[in-house]
Amino acid sequence: MVITTLPASWFRSKPLYALERQSIFLRAWHLLGPVIRFSVPEEKVFYELAQVRFYITNTAENGIKAYIADTSSPLRTYLTASGLLFATLSDEAPEFKDFFPNLEPLVDRVDFTRLRYRRSISYEGHFNWKTMIDGYQECLHCVYTHPTFSALYPPTFYSVEPYTNFCRHIADPSKPDDGLFLYFFPVCTLNVYGGGMSSFRTCPTEEPGVSRMEFDYYHEGTDEEFEKYFSFVRQVALEDFELCEGAQRNLEAGVYSQGVLNPEKERGVAYYQGRVKELVMEAFQREKEKRLKEQEAMEKDKGPNDGLTMKTRAIEM
């Protein structure tokens, strides 16, 4: 069976992103990071995903809670036993265990609170959110684009295991606690490698060709050791950034239309793109049926003589 990529038009269409926002982002659980990120009492840590601005706060009275920034309306959160905090953006999202039915047995063996929160950075990139996730979900490009990374984690071992709404990346089976990469559909990741831990979110903007990258970094060593780790992982991130901006330019210019995916080497891409297509097409069908019902209701309200009256007026004119 041939597995094709999403069409290039899906990476540059505003109406398509409107469907993605409703069918994917507002119905997902998004990783915000290890709970240690929110250890400062009363501090408000702000986020913005799919044009929903919200914040996390940790109070002695209520514990960790999430609120929409403009209205202070509460959002649902979920904290795993291993210390990972997730949040929804709307009431349309299912229960956490329905969205991630097999996540906790995998992650609960790891203590994600053992490393200290060190730094966050954010900046915009000229690429669609899916362009970045395409690159994250495969490592065929690693040997050419990430020479320092590939020296530590040879692509010959690299594999991606899709689950329900998340994927586990394994860089080296002999090092289960190093080279662990987790992708959470649609735009969140958690990466344990190089002696530290990081998470990033590829946040879509209203412009389909622009995304905002948000990174959080965790490390237990000295300041000098952290800066060495930070320099290494930032080099990898910047290599991906340049690759994505180049790929998006090709998508915008029409150089690329649609391709074929390797079912083994690109199974991570095939999985997440399949979810995108499935959810967007379901939303499109719902919208189509809704408009059809509205049209039928309007026709019914007009009455049997309205159509004849309109024709008569047209003749008179």
From TrEMBL:
<protein>
    <recommendedName>
        <fullName>Choline monooxygenase, chloroplastic</fullName>
        <ecNumber>1.14.15.7</ecNumber>
    </recommendedName>
</protein>
<dbReference type="GO" id="GO:0019285">
    <property type="term" value="P:glycine betaine biosynthetic process from choline"/>
</dbReference>
<dbReference type="GO" id="GO:0019133">
    <property type="term" value="F:choline monooxygenase activity"/>
</dbReference>
<dbReference type="InterPro" id="IPR015879">
    <property type="entry name" value="Ring_hydroxy_dOase_asu_C_dom"/>
</dbReference>
<dbReference type="Pfam" id="PF00848">
    <property type="entry name" value="Ring_hydroxyl_A"/>
</dbReference>
<comment type="similarity">
    <text>Belongs to the choline monooxygenase family.</text>
</comment>
<comment type="function">
    <text>Catalyzes the first step of the osmoprotectant glycine betaine synthesis.</text>
</comment>
<dbReference type="GO" id="GO:0051537">
    <property type="term" value="F:2 iron, 2 sulfur cluster binding"/>
</dbReference>
<comment type="pathway">
    <text>Amine and polyamine biosynthesis; betaine biosynthesis via choline pathway; betaine aldehyde from choline (monooxygenase route): step 1/1.</text>
</comment>
<dbReference type="InterPro" id="IPR036922">
    <property type="entry name" value="Rieske_2Fe-2S_sf"/>
</dbReference>
<feature type="compositionally biased region" description="Basic and acidic residues">
    <location>
        <begin position="292"/>
        <end position="304"/>
    </location>
</feature>
<feature type="domain" description="Aromatic-ring-hydroxylating dioxygenase alpha subunit C-terminal">
    <location>
        <begin position="112"/>
        <end position="159"/>
    </location>
</feature>
<feature type="region of interest" description="Disordered">
    <location>
        <begin position="292"/>
        <end position="317"/>
    </location>
</feature>
<dbReference type="InterPro" id="IPR001663">
    <property type="entry name" value="Rng_hydr_dOase-A"/>
</dbReference>
<feature type="domain" description="Aromatic-ring-hydroxylating dioxygenase alpha subunit C-terminal">
    <location>
        <begin position="180"/>
        <end position="280"/>
    </location>
</feature>
<dbReference type="GO" id="GO:0005506">
    <property type="term" value="F:iron ion binding"/>
</dbReference>
